[in-house]
Design a protein that fits this description.
Length: about 250
């Protein structure tokens, strides 16, 4: 279920993902999202990208719990979490700036997506939470992206308080969101202005800025794979399986 769509207009590649379970991301959607980002990067007509999800109050619920509950081996578990690693690395390594629109709540992997963006706009409804520890794992794969944006102290707070929501204002104060608006309409109006400005800038300068923004992350292909293996191992534990099954039965 779910889909990833791409619309290209006026130098902007707009990627939208959707899943009926609160825009959660099973493996097939993670693969489609990664491939669409790479296709956009190769498209010479695209100057920069916008990534968003469908709906008004939920940006992304993170990993698919249904798929997590079906994992039965370490290779299978590692491969699932590599889906998030590949999307983050696709955003990191592409040559074009990526703007993320976070219109509502973001959990786990959804926070990781927002953290990977070069520029992130949100609404006041975009509260965030790293819920992984509550289901027996941890925010290992997305951790480098989140920590890079909010800092070690804020990341550790979120990682160790999986039941606590942080507000959009908190996320903006800690550098995850660049702007937070009172409504979806205001966010979209600002996006239009931002697109107009970006289109007026030297494309070569934007590409070079992207490289500068991500200096020091060249080892992330290996790092995130190592983190995916940790998550893949932990999701097989009895504690994790019990927590995931309890969530599904709630």
């Amino acid at each position: 279920m779910g889909e990833v769509t791409l619309k290209t207009e006026n130098g902007v590649g707009t990627i939208e993902f959707y899943h009926p379970a609160h825009n959660s991301l099973p493996g097939n959607l993670l693969r489609e999202l990664k491939e669409t980002i790479e296709d956009c990067d190769r498209n010479e007509e695209v100057k920069f990208m916008v990534i968003k999800s469908r709906g008004e109050r939920t940006f992304c619920a993170g990993a698919s719990f249904t798929e997590l509950s079906s994992i039965e081996s370490l290779p299978q578990g590692k491969e699932f979490f590599m889906g998030f690693a590949r999307v983050i690395n696709a955003i990191r390594s592409c040559s074009k700036l990526v703007i993320m629109l976070v219109q509502g709540k973001a959990v786990g992997g959804g926070v990781g997506l927002a953290s990977a963006a070069d520029y992130c706009l949100a609404t006041k409804w975009a509260s965030i939470r790293l819920s992984e520890l509550a289901v027996g794992i941890g925010p290992f794969v997305i951790g480098p992206a989140v920590e890079r944006k909010v800092g070690f102290s804020a990341f550790s707070k979120m990682a160790l308080t999986p039941d606590e929501w942080q507000t959009a204002a908190w996320a903006k104060d800690h550098g995850l969101f660049h702007e937070a608006f009172d409504s979806l309409a205001q966010m979209n109006e600002y996006l239009d202005t931002l697109i107009e400005k970006f289109n007026s800038y030297n494309e070569e300068a934007l590409i070079d800025l992207k490289k500068v923004f991500w200096e020091g992350t060249e080892h992330w292909n290996e790092l995130l794979e190592q983190r995916a293996e940790i998550s893949g191992r932990l999701v097989l534990s009895e504690a994790s399986k019990n927590a995931i099954n309890s969530f599904l039965q709630a």
